[in-house]
């Protein structure tokens, strides 16, 4: 039986906004100079992690002869040029507007740092202003990135500290699914089509798009 949900917490990259495409394109461009292909298998462990930890993993795994600082400097500049063009993914606007209209408390809990968040959302202020809480990875309260539970636990606290069992997380990354489990929260996983869906611990449910989320199943108000 699906849990009764009173609060919803959303990841952002690849879940609300189509930013994962930018991450892939930029990293692929950098790695290609060294003859390295940026496969999904290489990318998956990086998704949802803090930038420095993800960069360390990438460079140590591939052997690319760049320092973390040099890689991040180049990567960040290339990404910042492209982030403003990112659009909401299917089903996002309708769902968020509906939850807000129905009085369901909603939060964003993202591994993005503030400068990147502001660029990604600058053309979508009407959407992101609907969220009651936004927690970013460079918030002083966040000590560890996903799969640690810090982001989701902090979002829950700022939503009024409801029971974690009634806070539904929406994620596209395996690290995020694990972070939700570590926070004691049920989680809807919307994976990349290339992802291996047989993961442990398993998500509460797997769907292909937010367009397919069944509100009533979780005790939330149905679309009108």
Evaluate the radius of gyration: 17 Å
Helices and strands: which structural class? alpha/beta
The biggest sheet amounts to: 6 strands, parallel
List the quaternary state of the chains: single chain
What's the helix-strand series? EHHHHHEHHEHEHEE
The coarse overall form would be: globular
Average pLDDT works out at 95
What share of the residues does DSSP label as strand, in percent?
Answer: 5-15%
Relative helix content: 25-40%
In CATH, the homologous superfamily of the largest domain goes by the name HAD superfamily/HAD-like
Instruction: Catalogue the unreliable spans.
Output: none
- SS field, number of helical segments: 9
Count of beta strands = 6
CATH class of the largest domain: Alpha Beta
Distance from N terminus to C terminus (CA atoms, Å) equals 24 Å
Please state how the strands of the largest beta sheet are arranged side by side. 3-2-1-4-5-6
Number of discrete domains:
2
Q: Determine the CATH topology of the largest domain.
A: Rossmann fold
Structure overview:
By secondary structure, the protein is of the alpha/beta class. It folds into two domains: 7-18 and 87-217, 3-Layer(aba) Sandwich (Rossmann fold), CATH 3.40.50; 20-84, DNA polymerase, domain 1 (Orthogonal Bundle). 38% of the residues lie in helices and 9% in strands. The protein has nine helices and six strands; from the N terminus they run βαααααβααβαβαββ. Strands 3-2-1-4-5-6 form a six-stranded parallel sheet, sandwiched between helices. Strand 4 (167-171), helix 9 (174-182) and strand 5 form a beta-alpha-beta unit. Helix 1 packs across helix 4 (68-82) and helix 3 crosses helix 4 (68-82). The longest helix is centred in the middle third of the chain and has 15 residues, at 68-82. The radius of gyration is 17 Å and the shape is globular. It starts with 6 loop residues before the first strand and ends in an 18-residue tail after the last strand.
């Amino acid at each position: 039986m699906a849990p009764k949900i009173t609060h919803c917490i959303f990841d952002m990259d690849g879940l609300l906004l189509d930013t994962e495409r930018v991450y892939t394109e930029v990293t692929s461009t950098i790695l290609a100079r060294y003859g390295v292909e940026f496969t999904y298998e290489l990318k998956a462990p990086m998704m949802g992690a803090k930038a420095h930890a993800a960069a360390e993993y990438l460079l140590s795994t591939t052997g690319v002869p760049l320092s973390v600082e040099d890689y991040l400097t180049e990567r960040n500049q290339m990404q910042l040029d492209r982030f403003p063009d990112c659009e909401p993914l299917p089903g996002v606007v309708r769902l968020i507007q509906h939850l807000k209209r129905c009085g369901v408390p909603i939060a964003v809990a993202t591994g993005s740092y503030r400068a990147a968040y502001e660029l990604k959302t600058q053309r979508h202020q009407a959407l992101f202003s609907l969220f009651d809480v936004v927690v970013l990875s460079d918030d002083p309260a966040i000590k560890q990135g996903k799969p640690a539970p810090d982001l989701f636990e902090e979002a829950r606290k700022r939503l009024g500290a409801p029971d974690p069992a009634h806070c539904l997380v929406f994620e596209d990354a395996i690290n995020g699914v694990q972070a939700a489990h570590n926070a004691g929260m049920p989680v809807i996983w919307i994976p990349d089509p290339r992802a291996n869906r047989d993961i442990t611990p398993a998500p509460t449910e797997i769907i292909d798009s937010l367009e397919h989320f069944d509100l009533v199943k979780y005790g939330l108000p149905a679309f009108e």
